[in-house]
Amino acid sequence: MIKLISSELFKLRKRGLTWILLYIMIGVMVLINLITYAISNISLPNQPPGSGLDVQSIISLSSSIPFTLSMLASFEAVMAVILMASTVGNEYNWRTIRVALVSCEGRMKFLASKIISVIILVVIGMVISLVVGFIMSLITNSLAGNALNFDFITGTYLWNHFLQFWRTLFIIMPFILMGLLFAVVGRSAMPGIGIGIGILFLEPIITSLMQNAGGWVADIPKYLFSANVDAISALSNVSSSMFGGSSTQVTSVPQAFLVLGSYMVVFITMAFYLFKKRDVTV
């Protein structure tokens, strides 16, 4: 199994798509920080002094890590879905799936190695994004003329954001596994990418429509993605909703973990079942 994971990591490291996604993620982090800095300096007309956006609260060093993680909850999910769906689906597209299965130890280990490899790269990408976000915060604070003060870095601060890091990974995992499932179902990367990203964008809109419908329909969003992602994100006191999220609140944070965890179990179980039972065709 270790050899399979190492092999998958080697292949992913050599593929141009992996590096393109990483560069896009870094570019997004740089751009968002620069735009945020620019917006923070805007003073709206006909507003009393001091009523504009506060530079200190937006680009402060202490906010750099939670702000970056809140962005990752949306943008990293898109990149991760593309990476997962292409990693599995391209084996069908490139007609290498049969050769790969013959040369490995079994279908289950083959698929598991791909999942683990992608998750490892997603974690590495998140770490790199955090570093970029912190560096950009140093730059924007310098541009704003703020003194660099690191007194906020305490044990409690580090622990809270260590937990936020893994919560962020947890809330994007259902979308990653959804991309995996539909790449297996469609025997191609495109169904996984299209459906995974489509749900990311469309589900909050559908959720809002359901809320406006009232009655029992308004309760359905409690068991979908947005409301449960929001509930877990709220633990960090930072808005990190998936592209707008939902105003629906679940009854409890444990319910949010349970609902999202259930989606993950269903997606990965179905993916493994279909991959094992179906004939490999290209």
What can you see in these coordinates?
With 282 residues, the protein is mostly helical. The chain has one domain. The protein is built from 10 helices and no strands. The chain is globular, with a radius of gyration of 21 Å. It starts with a helix and ends in a 5-residue tail after the last helix. The relative contact order is 0.13. Mean pLDDT is 83; it is low at 239-248.
Salient structural properties:
282 residues; mainly alpha
Q: What's the mean pLDDT score?
A: 83
Main sheet record: none
What is Rg? Answer: 21 Å
Percent helix: over 70%
Find the count of extended strands (DSSP E, 2+ residues): 0
How much of the polypeptide forms β-strand, as a percent range? under 5%
Instruction: Return the domain count.
Output: 1
Q: Assembly type of the shown chains?
A: single chain
Low-confidence stretches: 239-248
**Broad shape:** globular
N/C terminus separation? 25 Å
Total of DSSP H or I helical runs spanning 4+ residues: 10
Spell out the helices and strands N to C.
HHHHHHHHHH
Classification by helices and strands: mainly alpha
Summary, kept brief:
It contains 10 helices and no strands. The protein has 282 residues and is an all-alpha fold.
What secondary-structure arrangement, pairings included, does this model have?
Blueprint: H1 2-14, H2 16-40, H3 55-59, H4 61-93, H5 97-103, H6 107-143, H7 155-186, H8 189-213, H9 225-233, H10 253-277
Helix pairs in contact: 1-6, 2-4, 2-6, 4-6, 4-7, 4-8, 6-7, 7-8, 7-10, 9-10
